[in-house]
Design brief:
about 190 residues; alpha+beta; Alpha-Beta Plaits; two-stranded antiparallel ribbon; about 20% strand; binds uridine-5'-diphosphate; Nucleoside diphosphate kinase
Length: about 190
């Protein structure tokens, strides 16, 4: 039985998702303000802002039922960023975009699950946050196209290429989560 589940899990598609430098830096930290009471004193706690935008994005994929199988924080070189966006090399914004992607930490991830490439793009929303629906990541958390906080592969070939560019095979894990039978109905 376990073997069947493992085979099933291995057949799920994978996509490359990245929190771009603006997403990492934005923080969206207001939810992290808390008041700690100690005797008669109260202190406002401001936790480091970096954690929140990243966790917000991770939790949206996780809550849907997708599985995180690889994650790392990297500052890509401009050359590497150019490779990632090679399909856009003739666009006027290509140079600025490559420079921007290499300007700070990026959280690179691989997510796995049925339909994760297409549905991941739905969770992310339209490229231009002005056109992204409310409820999507870009719709809720970003304002302009040049700072739209997240990247997601746009198709199976791109997903394969981007995963290979950002991750070595040994940096990705294969496992069956306990929730899988409840998410997919596999016995
Ligand atoms: N981009 C930009 N200006 C534009 C269009 C795109 O700066 O007019 C940036 C934006 O950050 C976008 C990225 O280039 O996320 C890649 O563009 P693509 O068309 O592949 O959109 P995505 O797949 O990210 O939605």
């Amino acid at each position: 039985m376990l073997q069947d589940q493992e085979v099933h899990a291995a057949e799920f598609e994978r996509t490359f998702i990245a929190v771009k430098p603006d997403g990492v830096q934005r923080g969206l930290s207001h939810r992290n303000c808390g008041v700690m009471r100690c005797g008669n004193h109260s202190t406002t706690i401001l936790q480091p802002p970096m954690r929140d935008a990243i966790s917000e994005i991770i939790s949206r994929f996780e809550r849907k039922g997708y599985k995180l199988v690889g994650i790392k924080v990297v500052v890509p070189t401009k050359e590497f960023a150019g490779k990632h966006y090679h399909a856009l090399k003739d666009k006027p914004f290509f140079n600025g975009l490559s420079e921007f992607l290499s300007s700070g930490p990026v959280v690179a991830m691989v997510w796995e699950g049925e339909g994760v490439i297409t549905y991941g793009r739905k969770l992310i929303g339209a490229t231009d946050p002005q056109k992204s629906e409310p409820g999507t990541i870009r719709g809720d958390l970003a304002v302009v196209v040049g700072r739209n906080i997240i990247h997601g592969s746009d198709g199976p070939e791109t997903a394969k290429d981007e995963i290979n560019l950002w991750f070595k095979p040994e940096e990705l894990v294969s496992f069956t989560s306990n929730a899988e039978k409840w998410i997919y109905g596999v016995n």
